[in-house]
Specification:
This protein has 2 domains: about 25-290, Formate dehydrogenase/DMSO reductase fold, CATH 1.20.1630; about 295-320. By secondary structure, it is mostly helical. It contains 14 helices and 4 strands.
Length: about 325
Amino acid sequence: MFDLPLIWSFLIATAILIYVILDGFDLGIGILFPFLETDEDRDTAINTVAPVWDGNETWLILGGGGLFATFPLAYSLLMPALYVPILAMLFGLIFRGVAFEFRWRDEKHRPFWDFAFTAGSMVAAFCQGIALGAFIQGVEVDGRTYAGGWWDWLTPFSLITGIAVVIGYALLGATWLVMKTEGRLGEKAVRYARVTGIGTVLFIALISLATLSLDPRFVGIWFSTPAVFYTALVPFAVAVTAFYLWRSLGRQMDHKPFLAAIALFVFSFIGLGISLFPYIVPLEVTIWEAAAPDSSLGFLLVGTAVLLPLILGYTGYAYYVFRGKIKAGEGYH
């Protein structure tokens, strides 16, 4: 009665997108940390995410664990190809999490923990971008096994996507600070949001063009008739959102830049979906070929139908409870 592989591909894609948005802005704050000159600004920036940062990583577990359980063939093909950037990303996230807590408790070594917080955030973001680029460019498959090498992920394209994700996360972090802070820090955040906003849009355009050069099939997907009449809506939406982001900065519409930054990520994600669907291993293995048996997918879907509303509920409640701006000197530690 239901196309379970299609449903699960949508659920996993949604979990990854939610993770990118939610953990993206607190990684972005770590990326921006060196540009916050005073301890007071750094403390205030940290306190804007202190109540929610660890819960944001729930979605990474859901996406990764869901891929393993529901698309085991895709997991077995992609993980060997991405071991190095994925492991580096996990070390970055661990380092960032330890530094987040220790900078409050070990004030004598706070400069070191601030450096660790920035380094962990940058490494995690950069490696996520590299993994994305390596995923888009595809992996070498022989039957049902990975046939590539350890370093196939390291290409100019993956390095560009790594830089793009760092800048995009910095945009999310800057617009989050615009929404959550005021005074000197809020004004700095507006400036950083303008710079990173320009960078993000330029990298979206660059990566879009570079993706078309990876395989002629991508050109056909985007520019064949009548598909072009629909696919053209995505770059148009990105351009309109970028203009709205720029217009909303510094106009006392503090929540709108953050929503616009999220929209840029959503439209970029939709564009990625258009390029890759129906493949879960790009241009090699479809979601139906990689899926677990329907009996397993159905069993897992029942548990997800119970747990997913709970995750959404406590996540939404946490953001609701800690809504509003954070003033200097306020915090939750």
